[in-house]
Specification:
Layout (H helix, E strand, L loop, with lengths): L14 H19 L6 H8 L3 H8 L2 H24 L5 H5 L9 H13 L2 H13 L8 H18 L7 H21 L6 H12 L4
Helix pairs in contact: 1-2, 1-4, 1-7, 2-3, 4-6, 6-10, 8-9, 9-10
Pfam families: TetR_N
Keywords: DNA-binding, Transcription, Transcription regulation
GO molecular function: DNA-binding transcription factor activity; transcription cis-regulatory region binding
Length: about 210
């Protein structure tokens, strides 16, 4: 296996482009090794920077982790909005409402399709979510808040579909997470999109 050599004499990049480069390199490394296996030197090498140069952009290793997670959430929100044909999902999600023509089932299907096209990012979140169960993990609070937010949004969107919208929200989240783990472990024998469609037939029956 050839080990890539990263040069530090690259042309200077605009700040926004450099930050994106750092976010993407870090996401890839965490997906491969987990947060505890990540070194700032590896990120710096992959981006053609020194460690002090990297710290100038991100501040600290913990700060870099949170920045990567927020960056990926923003990217996913933009992609999901494009799939659903809407301009912005921030406001509709916050209020428990979706634009005309977009319902909870369609939104979930779009989420699954998005994830099926980016296994490395899904692996990144799966690894970090498991690691962050430890209260000492720097992303512990982030993932706890993210889970509660997702459940609240799903429940708000399910209020007209079920007499127990919170229960349906938990079932949806559990099914998505479980199917994704099975898919990541055996992608050759698991079709994530089809598995979700089969599950949705049961979860959304008579709804």
């Amino acid at each position: 296996m050839t080990v890539p050599v990263y040069r530090r004499d690259r042309a200077r990049l605009p700040a926004a482009e450099r930050r994106r480069q750092i976010m993407e390199a870090t996401a890839q490394l965490i997906a491969e090794r987990g947060f505890w296996g990540l070194s700032m030197q590896d990120v710096a090498d992959r981006c053609g920077l020194t460690v002090p140069g990297l710290l100038h952009h991100v501040g600290s290793k913990d700060g870099l982790l949170v920045a990567v997670l927020e960056h990926r959430d923003a990217e996913d929100a933009r992609s999901l909005a494009a799939q659903l044909g809407v301009d912005d999902l921030t406001a509709p999600w916050a209020g428990g409402e979706l634009p005309p023509g977009v319902d909870l089932r369609r939104m979930c299907a779009a989420l699954v399709r998005r994830n099926a096209g980016q296994p490395e990012i899904v692996r990144l979140f799966a690894v970090l979510e498991a690691e962050s169960l430890a209260p000492s993990h720097p992303a512990h609070d982030y993932f706890a808040a993210r889970q509660e937010h997702t459940l609240a949004v799903f429940a708000a969107l399910a209020k007209d579909l079920s007499p127990e919208p919170h229960a349906l929200a938990r079932q949806l989240m559990a099914m998505m997470d479980g199917l994704q783990i099975q898919w990541l472990r055996s992608p050759q024998t698991n079709d994530l999109v089809q598995a979700w469609e089969d599950a949705a037939e049961l979860l959304f029956v008579d709804r």
